Amino acid sequence: MGGFGPQLTPFGRQFKLLGYTLKVGNDAKLPLSAMLIESFTQTRKPQAAPPASGFGSNDNFELQQASLFFAGPISDHLGALAQATYSQNGGLLGWDNSDLRYARTLNIGSHTAIWGVSLNNNPSLDDVFNTAPAWQFPYTGPELAPGAPAAPILMGGLAQQVVGINGYAQIDSALYVEAGAYRSLSPSFLRAVNGDFNGRLAGITPYARVAYTWNLPNGNLELGGFALNVRRGLPGTNAAGDAVAIPGPTDKFRDFGIDASYQFLSGGDHIFTVNALYLGEHQRLDATYAAGGSSNLDNTLHALNINGSYWYKNTWGATLGAFTNDGSRDVTLYGNNGSPNTNGGVAELNWNPFGQASSWAEPYVNVRFGLQYTFYTRFSGLVYNVDGAGRRATDNNTLYLYTWLAF
Description:
Layout: H1 10-17, E1 32-43, E2 60-73, E3 78-87, E4 92-108, E5 111-120, E6 162-171, E7 175-184, H2 187-192, E8 205-216, E9 219-232, E10 251-265, E11 270-285, H3 286-290, E12 298-312, E13 316-327, H4 331-334, E14 342-354, E15 366-378, E16 398-406
Antiparallel strand pairs: 1-2, 1-16, 2-3, 3-4, 4-5, 5-6, 6-7, 7-8, 8-9, 9-10, 10-11, 11-12, 12-13, 13-14, 14-15, 15-16
């Protein structure tokens, strides 16, 4: 939807569930594509220090992302999505989201099913709904502006640092179930691919997902849930349960969430979508607390994201979103008054001059222009009171302009 995604229609969901293997006729083209995102970021008040090397404290232009994708079939039942990304912030080319799938269809009496196995590097990456943390709105956002200081670990905390294998099945295009487990990738491998490393996982990290879709005359409605259980050591140590060396203490994160989405797809000029995700996390910070990195041994975090979008002829789009992150006060972990509470909203306008089925050079040229504004009513506990630098919550309000090219 929106011309060229990343929101998926029911057809797009089936394409992904079937392992990216669908092709037209005997098309033998190598399924490669590229993407560029150039952006401009301005905060209401300049930041106390530049957000990254080579940038100013405000009004920054950035080649935010230059990516190369492989997305398509390898054989009749095996396919992949693999992404490599260069960013001006850091100046490095590294691996990004990657998903290798084997998928088949199955008929049992009057029931049909798709089943498969996914090997991927980001919990929820293999999901087909835009409520999933790996795919939720905003689909692109400012990297050179302050963001929420804390979020549940399922919201990107393990992205590109792990490898996992998940089995999944969708029955009668309605019930979806998935279960799998993740392990840490080695620091040496992550250095080779310019990936982050935030600590080694202890043993396996189980992940589960369930969702049910009601297929309606003019769209669909989905309701589901997530679960993730993480034990992780601090960087520079080996986590308890890791046989590589003498283990140290681990931090434990238990995430549970519910999600819902609705799509109105009448087949005409108008498309509406609504997405919602709530995640709750309990933390037992044995490693961080022992190292003096937190005031509390036990903490909680909660995150709620809701957004709704409208597209006209897949050309003009508008999205409104609201978010709230809150949790236990911990002065050592979060600074300021110790509160991670951050609330606000996002408004975005889009224009896709190219990217529809009737566009010039379709499907090779896709262009999106975006204007996005993020506003805060509370930022890490701040409302009208100021932090040590005299900064209010609203000083972090951010204007973000971007051009998104996909080929």
